[in-house]
Amino acid sequence: MERAKVIIHMYMSIDGKIDGDWDGLPGDKISGDYYDDQLFKLGSANANGSNTIVMYAAKGKPDLSKYDGQRIEYRDWVPSEIKSATWDVSYDRRGRAGWEKNYFPYAGRKNRAIEVIAKQASQNYLAFLQSMEIPYLVCGEREINFAESLVKLKKYFDIKTMVLGGSALINGAFLKAGLVDQISLVIAPYISGDSKKKGTFDTLEKFVNQRFHVTQTKKLGDGGIHLIYDRD
Predict the structure, then answer these.
(1) What are residue 68's phi and psi, to 5 degrees?
(2) Which residues form the Bacterial bifunctional deaminase-reductase C-terminal domain (predicted)?
């Protein structure tokens, strides 16, 4: 395969909600720890949309004005000396992530950051990323070309499998683009009951006619379950 394989890997309640008051309760510790442990067994890169990245990994507010006047071409910036066994990929078309470190500690690893942006991101933001030694891929004009990003992730970083963990909108965007190869769902032993919370996929009310079939069911020690689906 020319591109990186994509696995959607999500932690959810029995009624399909991906966050809420149930997450982190003592009764789902086994399932929660199992979800984290599985991520880098599935692939070498953890990917998220900008909302999730800003919420958890890159909360800073960098002063981009210090880069005023710099003229940086909109092309990939991938220094050969930047290496890592595991990666944290940020799909961040406008350049919102306020990285304070060039890695994100998760699942016991320091996962080096990679930014995937569109040309909506400012030149100041590109200068900021270079100052942080965070490689970036320019994939698209106003919207990100997801297929192009997967080819580049495999070419430049040898990422054979990318594990996408949300948000629901970016999961839905990859689904609509026909790029989801496998779905991994760890289901906690709780029901959310909150209709305002998102499910695994938000396709903006568009039905996506793709069929998946279950290839693994594994019961977990706290009553949770791990399901894996492959695309037909």
Answers:
(1) -55, 140
(2) 124-221
